[in-house]
Amino acid sequence: MSHITPEFLSYASHAAFLRNSISQLPVIPEDWALQTTNVASEWVKQQFLAHIADRPLVQPPPELDTTTLLSSGQLALHMAYAYQHLKEALLTKFPPTEKIVLNHPSVVIDSGYRIIIWYVPDGLSPWVQSNMYAAMVAMGDLLKKSITDQKGSGWRTQGSNFWPSGTPRISPRCINIAPCWFQQGHECYGPPPKNSDDGFKPEVSATLKGDRSLAMIMAMQRPALLASAALRVMHPQLYWASVRTHVKLGCWSADQGLRDMHRLLKHWASVYTGAAIMCNWQSPEH
Questions:
Q1: Ramachandran class of 54: left when φ > 0, alpha when ψ lies in -120 to 50, beta otherwise
Q2: Chain mean position to CA 87
Q3: What is the mean predicted confidence (pLDDT) over 30-58?
Q4: Which of 39-48, 92-101, 113-122 has the lowest mean pLDDT?
Q5: What are the residues facing 143 on neighbouring strands?
Q6: Residue 140 CB neighbour total at 10 angstroms
Q7: What is the mean pLDDT of the chain?
Q8: pLDDT for residue 285
Q9: Secondary structure element (H or E) that encloses residue 106, with its range
Q10: What phi and psi values does residue 213 have, to the nearest 5 degrees?
Q11: Local structure of 177: helix, strand or coil
Q12: Is 87 in contact with 113 (CB distance < 8 Å)?
């Protein structure tokens, strides 16, 4: 009989409970980028479970390229290490004399033993970081147009919140991109109606309404995949809810004849419905 660690029993029982509570998993079309994301996310979860249970690692799926496999394996390893180094919130009630500095992968839990923070430094491989840099450089024109210093404008794009860059190709700015953007004041709750004029008004975000939109999404695919794989381990219920939303929006856009939206959703590798690109941004004091 193999040795089973308490960490494995805790996470595995929780994951099994969530899996059983989901009545029917969404069916992802084989030719969507989200399908590759789901394959990688499942493998990351299995590797994570193997690490915390001290069991043999799972064979990699043949659908994934070498860079994605290596990056996924690194993520799973660091997340497992973090999971095995709990920092309980009880320290807040009985604080030590000195501040605690997290200098290695860790998770922070509250008094009910719920994970509230995952701290996973080096979770992203150098290859993924290189992909992120290349994607950001390709968005330089959009980033340059995003800053405003007008009084009363949004704090996220205030020029004073960004550090200057010493690299000419880097534009310290902030943009939001989404293949299916829900406009403020136009939200409609419930399932998408058959008629797009019935109050359900998502659109492709303005930042993706251009000739380079598909190229931008393709450049983001591997980082988006890794972020989604992390969510698969951290919050399985949210992961599957996001996948279901993505699939339904993709099918709805196809039925409505919204070709641009459907094409972008088909190549959108993230389970998140949008992404914020923040370059050299610093948080303002609160």
A1: left
A2: 24
A3: 94
A4: 92-101
A5: none
A6: 15
A7: 81
A8: 62
A9: strand 106-109
A10: -60, -45
A11: strand
A12: no
